From TrEMBL:
Similarity comment: family membership: Belongs to the sodium:galactoside symporter (TC 2.A.2) family.
Transmembrane segments: 15-36, 48-73, 85-103, 115-134, 155-174, 180-207, 228-253, 265-282, 294-312, 318-337, 358-381, 401-424
Species of provenance: Ferirhizobium litorale
Keywords of this entry: Membrane, Transmembrane, Transmembrane helix
Cellular component GO terms, alphabetical: plasma membrane
PANTHER family noted in UniProt: MAJOR FACILITATOR SUPERFAMILY (MFS) PROFILE DOMAIN-CONTAINING PROTEIN, MAJOR FACILITATOR SUPERFAMILY DOMAIN-CONTAINING PROTEIN
Name of the protein described by the UniProt record: MFS transporter
GO molecular function: symporter activity
Gene3D superfamilies: MFS general substrate transporter like domains
Single GO BP term: carbohydrate transport
Length: 443
């Protein structure tokens, strides 16, 4: 394995090797949140309400696990390195539990779903936090951090496309024998450990810049005093909420507002496929404009383009396809730039606290992601109920379908606009980040 170092410019081979595990991790994440609930209720035959309760309990537990695993990721030590070592230890649990959850036996019940679902949740959190912290520490260079994030998020998008395409192409009608979700189970179980080993062998362990260890309570205190991080995470949470609202309503909008339920899968695939094209554009824009300004301009354009969806009605499929392409490209900016800015914000903490705590910061980051998803569900479903919208009901009137369009296209503009305001004059750019690195190097 490569010796620990902190390169300013990791090459393409190292970036590609680091990105590999993101593909099976994405193939795990999307089915966990999108396909598993429907599969266990419709195919396995478990009561829908009970499945919902079990998965909700798992997600609440998982949210509390994020900061704990982030803290542990920063305190772990082994001859393999704290990032690579903690990451490698998690892979057997994550791969095996995903296989068991995605390919259940014929007599699987709620206990089976709860047990393996909880282990997948723990394993995924354990794997992702040291993995993202590893990437944040791979380079000290302001611009190169965007490149590293771009490699990882490109692999994430490929894994997402596989997770969308395989289950529906192969079929999910039965869990006797091989089905689409079982193929994803094999993909994750085989590819995640292999990709993790390749990354650990090819990618260096960054030097730990910590000069002291902090107790859990001290870690919280320094986070609370990191104004740049608080500003970033609020903007990230609001932008995540803005993205989660249409994601929650996407299936209903295509089925009921546009009247084309058969195109839900193709439109979703088109959206994520377009995001792959957005990744290099995000990197180029960040290099020329700075990361926070490039992200802000992408959010402004997303608001303008996505607002047009509110005017679409039954049969406006080409227009919606165009919106999917443009907003998908802009999704690439949302995926690449915020975590690259997060790496700079962690420098701010390291310079102040003397402890390099990327794991703890990405634990808070993961928690914000889950809160935005939960907030979207908690907001839009009651509002839809208030206006009398019923999914798949041909009796939905003009007012109900109009309310669906407003919630889908225009409600997300409000939180996104606040996020733009928070990030436009963000206090850490390239010059400020270089000064932070000098302070850290001087100890």
């Amino acid at each position: 394995m490569k010796e620990a170092r902190s390169p300013n410019l990791p090459g393409r081979t190292e970036c590609a090797a680091y990105a590999l595990p993101a593909l099976p991790l994405a193939a795990l994440a999307l089915p966990l949140y999108v396909i598993v609930p429907t599969f266990y209720s419709d195919v396995v035959g478990l009561p829908l309400a009970a499945v919902g309760v079990v998965l909700l309990a798992i997600r609440v537990f998982d949210a509390f696990a994020d900061p704990l695993f982030g803290w542990l990721a920063d305190r772990f030590s082994s001859r393999l390195g704290r990032r690579r070592g903690f990451f490698l230890l998690s892979l057997p649990l994550t791969a095996a539990s995903a296989f068991m959850l995605f390919w259940p036996p014929g007599d699987a019940g709620l206990g089976y779903l709860g047990f393996w679902g909880a282990l997948v949740s723990v394993g995924y959190t354990w794997t992702v936090l040291p993995y993202t912290a590893w990437g944040a520490e791979l380079s000290d260079d302001y611009k190169r951090r965007s490149v590293i994030a771009a490699w990882r998020e490109s692999a994430t998008l490929v894994g997402t496309l596989l997770a969308i395409g395989l289950p529906f192409a192969i079929g999910l009608q039965t869990h006797d024998g091989v089905n689409g979700l079982a193929v994803v189970a094999v993909l994750v179980a085989v590819c995640l450990p292999l990709a993790g080993m390749v990354a650990a062998l090819a990618v260096p362990e960054p030097i730990d810049r910590s000069t002291r260890n902090l107790r859990f309570s001290e870690s919280l205190g320094f986070i609370g005093r990191n104004d740049a991080f608080l500003r970033l995470i609020v903007a990230f949470l609001l932008n995540g909420l803005a993205n989660a609202i249409p994601a929650t309503l996407f299936l209903y909008f295509v089925s009921d507002r546009l009247g084309s339920p058969e195109l839900r899968g193709p439109f979703l695939f088109l959206y994520f496929l377009s995001a792959i094209a957005g990744v290099p554009l995000a990197t180029l824009s960040a290099r020329r404009l700075g990361k926070h300004r490039a992200w802000c301009l992408a959010m402004v354009l997303a608001c303008l383009v996505f607002s047009l969806a509110g005017f679409l009605d039954h049969g406006d499929l080409y227009a919606f396809g165009a919106i999917c392409i443009v907003t998908g490209i802009l999704l690439g900016f949302d995926l690449v730039l915020p975590p690259a800015i997060q790496a700079d914000v962690i420098d701010n903490d390291t310079a102040a606290s003397g402890a390099q705590r990327s794991g703890f910061y990405f634990g808070a980051w993961s928690l914000a992601t889950k809160l935005s998803l939960a907030g979207a569900v908690g907001m839009v479903f009651p509002l839809l109920s208030m206006v009398g919208f019923e999914p798949g009901d041909a009796a939905n009137g003009t007012s109900a379908l109009g309310a669906l369009a407003i919630l889908y296209a225009w409600l997300p503009i409000l939180p996104k606009a606040v996020a733009i305001g928070l990030m436009w004059n963000f206090p850490i750019g390239e010059v400020e980040q270089q000064e932070l690195r000098r302070r850290i190097a001087d100890g």
